[in-house]
Amino acid sequence: MPPMISIFLFCFITSFPPLISATLNLTQPFPESVVQDVQRRVNESIVRRQIVETTVRDSSNKCLTGNPIDDCWQCDSNWAKNRQRLADCGIGFGLGAMGGKNGQIYVVTDSSDRDTVNPTPGSLRHAVVQEEPLWIVFAADMVIKLKHELIVNSYKTIDGRGANVHITGGGCITLQYVSNVIIHNVHIYNCVPSGNTNIRSSPTHVGYRGKSDGDGISIFGSRNIWVDHCALSHCTDGLIDAIMGSTAITISNSYFSHHDDVMLLGHDDKYLPDSGMQVTIAFNHFGEGLVQRMPRIRRGYVHVVNNDFTEWQMYAIGGSASPTINSQGNRYTAPDDPNLKEVKFSSSFFIFYFGLIFLSS
Which stretches make up the Pectate lyase domain (predicted)? Predict the structure, then answer.
């Protein structure tokens, strides 16, 4: 290659790192194929349920729900012994999130969070910082009041099934530069800013952390993340925020309530790596006491499908910086305020499919 061409290519590549990062961050080059796969799974689940309802005389105790995620694991009567099957039940852009699949079962027996540098064995903090894949379960109902943000390492599943697990306090959950994390069936609320202290993030690393925002779940530069069947409310900043190049995320079957800025997807309008962000928002209930950002999307491709929006005080879905928002099969129940019943779109690319239902209160 001639020297001048080599110099030109070098200058071009080094001059546009955000653009290159955004391109490399693109998980699915054809996101519509992921959307179609979600549609197929939902339709198959609905058909199975309809067949049972029309052919079985007493179908009241059948596991089939019409929800492909729940049908995948709830139909197994021994699900408690086959917990890791859950990792095969994801849909959408977070389908590849394996969590702690094929790892050991770690049973949390201690609800305390006394030491963020040397966490107590048996505590949730001790479990999530380990290097190896772990499937984390809970020995009993518990309320875990965090002193500071809980920094989760890669290849972890936090599985609250079979127990009533509440996480609250400082932080709360931080996924920073990690991959393959599943958070399932936990309550997360009253999360407040904390920090300016040392926190362990792995068996070999302790770092000084500044003040956190007070998100329920903060997803920062991470991929292959699945949040399912969680309840989130009353946090200082966002209930779930995914920023700084995060992608391959599914947020499903969760309940959001009593909060202002519910969900932010994308750091800011000028942050090009978020152009590769791909997120599925499916089967969630956006309930009472919510104000805005359900979600708020900057750049990227977001599939918002089969959600129930029952209250908003400003707006439900918003976007800027040319995101693609594919809104499909959702139900919107407008508040009494006539100003909030107006349908307005400020995003430059917003797709509506048949099946959306708008209801006036």
Answer: 141-338
Identify which of 97, 98, 93, 95 has the alpha carbon closest to the alpha carbon of residue 303: 93
Round to whole Å and give the CA distance between 39 and 263.
23
Q: Name the least confident of 52-56, 222-226, 326-330.
A: 52-56
| 285, HSE (Cβ side, Cα atoms, 13 Å) | 10
- Domain membership of residue 110 (yes or no) is yes
Tokens 């362990």 sit on residue: 200
Q: Give the E-state strand segments of 56-196 in sequence order.
A: 104-108, 134-138, 142-146, 150-151, 156-159, 165-170, 173-176, 179-184, 187-192
**Packing angle of the helix pair 3-15, 17-24 (nearest 10 deg):** 80
199 has a pLDDT exceeding 90: yes
What's the pLDDT at 25? 54
What are 143-173's pLDDT values in tens digits? 999 999 999 999 999 999 999 999 999 989 9
CATH code, domain with 198: 2.160.20.10
Given the residues 209, 223, 293, 299, the one annotated as active site: 293
293 is known as an active-site residue: yes
pTM above 0.85, yes or no: yes
| Total number of domains in the chain | 1
